[in-house]
Amino acid sequence: MPPKTTEAVAGDAANTADIWNAGCPSRRVLELVANKWALLVIPLLRGKPQRNNELLRQVGGISQKMLTQTLRELELNGLVLREDRHTVPPHVEYRLSPLGLSLSRTLIAVDRWVEANHAQIDAARRLR
Fold it and tell me: What CA dihedral angle connects 80, 56, 59 and 43, to 10 degrees?
């Protein structure tokens, strides 16, 4: 029997994942993508590679420290690719990996839902 392909192994893991099980590795992925800053950074990288300062200007309220931590975590988990052009001054760009691009499609839908429904959520909160 031939060895399984990477896709087949990933498919097997997806079939056995249980997000409601606290010990399931899929829970760590949920924690990664549900991070407030990841939810904001990933869709911004969908259009084109961006430098750190470009992202810092676009994501209101994020500190340099949190942006750096977020980008490192996303890179470590295969969602973002970092390209260092080894120039002086330093020129580093971030872009989505194919896996990150597939996630960004879902996150953009979430962003649009939030923008369309935030007033109703705020109104419900005021009623309490």
Answer: -20
